[in-house]
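question for whoever is on the cluster today: can someone run the full assembly for these? six chains, 1248 residues total. i dont have access anymore since they changed the login thing
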Amino acid sequence: MKKVSEIMTTDVATIPGSARVSDAVNLMRRKGIHTLIVDQSHEQDAYGIVTAFDIVAKVTATGRNPRQVRVYEIMTKPCLVLNPELGVEYAAKLMTSAGIHTAPIIQWNLLGILSVTDILNQGDFLENPQEDALAKQFQALLTTARATCKQNGAASDACRQAWDAVDAVEAEAAYQKAEILEKTAFEEFCEEYPEAFKDREYDTWCSG
Amino acid sequence: MKKVSEIMTTDVATIPGSARVSDAVNLMRRKGIHTLIVDQSHEQDAYGIVTAFDIVAKVTATGRNPRQVRVYEIMTKPCLVLNPELGVEYAAKLMTSAGIHTAPIIQWNLLGILSVTDILNQGDFLENPQEDALAKQFQALLTTARATCKQNGAASDACRQAWDAVDAVEAEAAYQKAEILEKTAFEEFCEEYPEAFKDREYDTWCSG
Amino acid sequence: MKKVSEIMTTDVATIPGSARVSDAVNLMRRKGIHTLIVDQSHEQDAYGIVTAFDIVAKVTATGRNPRQVRVYEIMTKPCLVLNPELGVEYAAKLMTSAGIHTAPIIQWNLLGILSVTDILNQGDFLENPQEDALAKQFQALLTTARATCKQNGAASDACRQAWDAVDAVEAEAAYQKAEILEKTAFEEFCEEYPEAFKDREYDTWCSG
Amino acid sequence: MKKVSEIMTTDVATIPGSARVSDAVNLMRRKGIHTLIVDQSHEQDAYGIVTAFDIVAKVTATGRNPRQVRVYEIMTKPCLVLNPELGVEYAAKLMTSAGIHTAPIIQWNLLGILSVTDILNQGDFLENPQEDALAKQFQALLTTARATCKQNGAASDACRQAWDAVDAVEAEAAYQKAEILEKTAFEEFCEEYPEAFKDREYDTWCSG
Amino acid sequence: MKKVSEIMTTDVATIPGSARVSDAVNLMRRKGIHTLIVDQSHEQDAYGIVTAFDIVAKVTATGRNPRQVRVYEIMTKPCLVLNPELGVEYAAKLMTSAGIHTAPIIQWNLLGILSVTDILNQGDFLENPQEDALAKQFQALLTTARATCKQNGAASDACRQAWDAVDAVEAEAAYQKAEILEKTAFEEFCEEYPEAFKDREYDTWCSG
Amino acid sequence: MKKVSEIMTTDVATIPGSARVSDAVNLMRRKGIHTLIVDQSHEQDAYGIVTAFDIVAKVTATGRNPRQVRVYEIMTKPCLVLNPELGVEYAAKLMTSAGIHTAPIIQWNLLGILSVTDILNQGDFLENPQEDALAKQFQALLTTARATCKQNGAASDACRQAWDAVDAVEAEAAYQKAEILEKTAFEEFCEEYPEAFKDREYDTWCSG
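^ ran it for u. tokens below:
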């Protein structure tokens, strides 16, 4: 899975909140873009965002004069921000479940901007669908876990950590497909080796 | 105010609902677009629409394989359609209040497609804000109404029709600005000429 | 499937946006209706709508005096409009997915109004459920397609058009039932006749 | 203000959750109604509701056969219920802010049903708008409070209770009109009689 | 299933709508709670509610001074109320489907308050999941119905009433699990005893 | 304004997505908390969250057995995350506008968790409302800007930067109060010194 930082646009246009909407329109038209970031006003401040949709919804649609409306009146602030390390598929979920088409990437500073169109054009979901990737990863981790536990014993810390990794990917894959897991691979392992891991904090597992 | 037909894009890409999402992605990437129209399956059928957002939200974000998902599984159908004669400002309101970025224009046939970006770039809301246009129109109609009623009498049909036009634009302008009208220009006229229009169907006006 | 024009109510009451809400209430009570259309103020203008729900929500519930509120303050404008040729089932989907109980039918002029109650009482979904109708239509089109291709050859335009019709109805039926199609009838045909249709614009089909 | 019990419809049609949607349609058509109540299945159970909108949205619009869908598949349960003693204006707010057109009235048993149309037709909001009623009530309570405190002393329980009543109505009126109160009538009183009520639980009032 | 009255908190803090938000904050902090009920202003009045979320959303997030905002400006009124007899599982559904974390319990008077946390901590859904309870209840009622009808005859009122009870619980269980019932237990019974119950108001059942 | 890191809870409980909901309930009950974080399954993975509300809404309310439902089936993933440096007021806005009661704080690692109750109890919005803080900051920056420009000249970079700071805070304050600025302090300055800053990228300012 690609990371957000690999496909984001790093050339980001910013505008002050006190600028007129007509300035925002001109800047967007000149640069051929539809999103501007509104900079922080001080260090603890949040970032804002203003899009073509905001302008069309709150100025054009209401007949207001764009020379008499300021950017802060129509911006969204604070706005959803993305972490550059996040996987593109997770960024896709975060943005679309919030109904958002574009989001800034911030880590200390403003690093870039990511749009749904960037994801469509530069994501690798066509060549490398996540469900296939997770299925492979699960198989690899499962093989490792069984080998590790054989070598170190079913009650060893190494065995336990290996199963934690299997568990996490198996749950993630089931979550993505909205599938129900009757029994996880680990739970099957527990039935074979009931002596394992009796001390988990969330306590019903391997309770045998 | 420009009409939708003046700024819409007439080169529209269509795709069957039975096509794979991978086909839709390839078509979008090749044409540099982010909206496809799904054609009617028979005459009374509605049009559907599929956007980059739909693909990112329902395929990328869920990790599904785009070669195994079909367009009809992720399209919106029926979709909001616009009339070619509609004013761009009204199209802006209709689209944005429904949270929609693109809509097809249909009159018997599919004529084109209109996006929020088209409105931003080609609307004339910067040069000719609707609130100014409505204010001018109101003044012109008001002058006409007063002249017409002087000439034809306050109880004449011509006078009545002239005031209907004033009323409509005055209400529209107040609606756009979310203003409250204590008394309309017509109601002021009524106080001067209480004999006018006693027979309106919605009956409290000029009740004197 | 019936068309919207077959079951709509053609006797529609209109009211100007400048009228008082008390006028709207009186008109509704006198006519025993709960929807009024607000006429266009000029040619490119949109239609508006005001319902009993709007009055109860925005005037009754807030304790305001209906003699001091005007219709334009509580109307919805522009409103969703329906095409008279649209099938009733599609109108049902368009209205209910927008949370709307009544919509005007417009083609150049205001032709009528359609409510959810009209659909309940006069639709033929009880006698003639669309899923049955689509299933029959699919069978008929499938028979035709196979015959046409036999007669004209698997690579003929006539064959191709016949399959387009099958495809469209099959996708529509699957869409209605939220079913997944592993393989369409056309794709099965492709396996028998791999020489067919290599040139589709959306290119994975019949790629053999 | 009228009470819900004064304008509700007491003739309510019920249907079991196990009935077919086609039965619900026939019952609605025969009785000329658009809401049915789904009875409790046991004493602690909630009531359900099924409306014409539910049928059109979940059966007609999706093309399903109403003879193969049961009422429980499309009903809303539990549903919002109203108290018979509630004022009609509050019922209006509760229903419309939840986007609901009809609600059952329940107190131990099912007493009736109230629709937005009932409120429009039988509410007295036209003759007796709540904002006028609250304004009168406020004046009367204010006169009483000042008289009571004069007679019993500013620190008396009777005075305190009288001001509680004034306060409640003043806040309610301001709430209805979305107005801000810089200083309440009671706070003005406090400035005149700073010895009053030092012991309120929410402690900044009359802190002088 | 427990009743709402068994797990609600009966010690409820109230505040007048005219109080300052700073008073509400201090009261919440002192009592370690996050919900206050706003009392009725007169008998037909509704109850209001103000929560920590309301304060954080409408005062903290907007930077307003809590000493200058009054409770009525940020409360929700009328608010959803629960019946003390309602089963906890139904209260859970009613609250969560409305997006609400806390609701007052009212019957004539304010009896208590119920929060999502109360349900989590004191509900018996862990020990006694409703799906198991309904399954047991269904089996018991089914046995009773078959016995009753054998004894009194398939066309007897006693038989009919017994089946109504079976039907109600079967539909409820299917509703909870979002399952489709091809044929209900009663419909199977009808096939065995087609003479039964020809006169139901919703008329397709046992039509044989 | 306090920072998120100053008031967040650093003792955060996590749970694997593959755990049973019954484990989550027991963990919450034992620790007296209502939010658990679901850890990443690999480095680019997002964090998930599961709350008491999720459990009550998706398990209790639907009658499902919590021993047969896993955490991943009811969690929200990816979830909104907060930056530790963000001001509490902005966190308040971000959380409440998304309808969220609790969010994790992440920077490379999971640092803590912040709830609406934390903000209510530990924010300093009561002692130090942001609108007062912004007003003071604006006055200080304004004084600085005027002094800087006097000293360095109206066309100097130092002057320009000083005004950028004024502008940002003035827009932020107006945004918070939803106020319209007819003319900003900077625009007034421009009228006095029209030679200033002709070259801004967003071009209408100081255009004289």
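summary bc i know u wont read the tokens: Chain A has two domains: 4-122, 130-207. Chain A touches chain F through 60 residues (CB under 8 Å).
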